Amino acid sequence: GIPIRTNLDNSTTVQYAGLLHQLTMKARSTVRDIDPQNDLTFLRIRSKKHEIMVAPDKEYLLIVIQNPCE
Amino acid sequence: HGNLRGGRWELVVPRPPLAAMFADGTAPGADVESVWRSARSARCEAKSCQTGKISTAETAVQSHTSRDASVQTDQSKAAVQDFQQEVQVDYTSLLSFLQRVEDAVIKELNRNWKSRAFDGFEVNWTDQNETVLCLHTLSYPEAQDQNLQVTGVSWNATGSVVACSYGRLDGGDWSTEKSYVCTWNLDRRGLNPERPDLVVDVPSSVMCLAFHPSQPSVIAGGLFSGELVVWDTSRTEDSVIWRTGMTDDTHTDPVYQVHWLPDAKHRNHFRLLSVSTDGKILVWREERDGRLVLAEGFAMVAQQVPRSMHLKKFACGEAAIGVTSLSFSHFDPRVFIVGVEGGYSLKCSTAAEMPALHWTGSSVPLRAPAELAFSPHSGLVYSVSCSPFHRNLFLTCGTDGQVHLHSMLQTQPLISLQLSKKYLFCVRWSPVRPLVFAAASGEGNCNKCFCLGDVHLFDFEKSSQKPALSIKQAAAERPVYCLEFNIKQTQLLAAGDAAGTVKVWQLSSDFTEQGPREMNHLEQLASETMD
């Protein structure tokens, strides 16, 4: 995916965009393989340091990275 | 003979006897000469043929110029274009997309703030290694026979080779002992811990060592005589590639620390920086004939040290301040911290402009870099280390057995830890865990305190009062002079001691895996102020 708007630095943005686009496509195909009537609406990845949220769409992808406060 | 009888010659032949009429005799055979050859040759003709003469010519070909060319991939510059100019965006559809997803995303964000679903939930991806074990005990018997001590250890850029320098730290003022620099490649099969892969003989005592940050075979060492030498271990004959020699610019005291400084202009090029107790911090440039030439330098003069109200003791007037250690900030390449003989640490900057007073006789003008002086230790500072995770934190340790955690923003230390009764020779932050550091101490048998070992690993997350782990390095209570974490293989820690051995320790996984909230804890520590 080509980044359009970001508030992080260039290299991190490009990295996130490329990797998460591929992962979103894979997640979407997984969901549709299990049930063809279903489709992916939202993707959340939780890691040790933060939580990454991806809202997918036909043309665009919104990626939000949050530091969950516990 | 003939009888002469009356004028007529008569041939007298002996008359054969009558029996001779039946004598043996051979009759010659009859010969018929063969005529086929001549008959044949009467019909044949002689002919001859020959290939025509082959024309040959002599020429010679030789390339008369040759050039050495080498190829190496350069570190790639970040080739990220400015994408915001190139993309044609249909802003209306972007807007409608954002409006569609906005609610869902905000709902999830809010949910996360309040969620307790993952409290205490941690996943083990790797096998947890519970114990600390000594992987290798490396030594060089010849150096040990001469009672040399390990003065410096360093890991190379790939993390597979450890080098140590032998010398004497208690040699006094005058030392003409030979010393050695030994390297071992730990990834080799057939590693013999008593036989280093490479031994370099050095005519003077080597006090400190540093591998080049990107070239895996280049080591720099600082000598007791004040010189600096750079070796290339990939060369078989003479490994010395640069040296400073004894000029007016070299240090007049032993060099206690060397450091490779990234060049501001060329990111891949590094220059050498040396620190010595004669008060000078010098940056060297490489010249073509293998010499290191002074590029810029700093001098610490007591008068120019900024004084704050808390400092009550400073050296008198024009005395030079002996610098024993140095550490550059990982966040701002111009800021560095030095530890001095007087026991305090100073924050300095390479961008300082003010010339150093009372310093002549150097080819390059020396500048005074000090900006801020921090609260002192009771003894001299042996080691400083800037945190790789926080821009303002650094540690200092000294002969009073204490480790101070300082923030660059204030003169008083944030935390003061009395780790041992003996000297602390080296302190280093862990490269992976923001809250962990290791300290190397002198003789470990202290009477009443809890620490028994020689290498102390401290974890602020577990306890801010006592070490998380104390490792006994040598059985004979010899002090540990230096230690280094391996940046590539983060579970390895090398420590060199006075008995001449380098031990490579493998740390347990709680020292190598970063916990989820360590950075927050570190930030919290950094923002505490002492009243």
Automatic annotation (TrEMBL), chain A:
InterPro entries: DYNLRB1/2, Roadblock/LAMTOR2_dom. The keyword Iron does not apply. Residues 1-67 form the Roadblock/LAMTOR2 domain. GO terms for cellular component: cytoplasmic dynein complex; microtubule. Keywords: Cytoplasm, Cytoskeleton, Dynein, Microtubule, Motor protein, Transport. GO terms for biological process: microtubule-based movement. It is found in: Cytoplasm, Cytoskeleton. SUPFAM superfamilies: Roadblock/LC7 domain. The keyword Transport applies. Its main location: cytoplasm. Pfam families: Robl_LC7. Gene3D superfamilies: Dynein light chain 2a, cytoplasmic. Acts as one of several non-catalytic accessory components of the cytoplasmic dynein 1 complex that are thought to be involved in linking dynein to cargos and to adapter proteins that regulate dynein function. Cytoplasmic dynein 1 acts as a motor for the intracellular retrograde motility of vesicles and organelles along microtubules. Belongs to the GAMAD family. This is DLRB2 protein. The gene is Dynlrb2.
UniProtKB/TrEMBL annotation, chain B:
It comes from the Eukaryota. This is WDR34 protein. SUPFAM superfamilies: WD40 repeat-like. The keyword Repeat applies. It comes from Aramus guarauna (Limpkin). Gene3D superfamilies: YVTN repeat-like/Quinoprotein amine dehydrogenase (2.130.10.10). One of its GO terms (biological process) is intraciliary transport. It holds the Pfam family WD40. One of its GO terms (molecular function) is dynein heavy chain binding. Transmembrane segments: none annotated. It is found in: Cytoplasm. The keyword RNA-binding does not apply. Keywords: Cytoplasm, Repeat, WD repeat. GO terms for cellular component: ciliary plasm; cytoplasmic dynein complex. Coiled coil: none annotated.
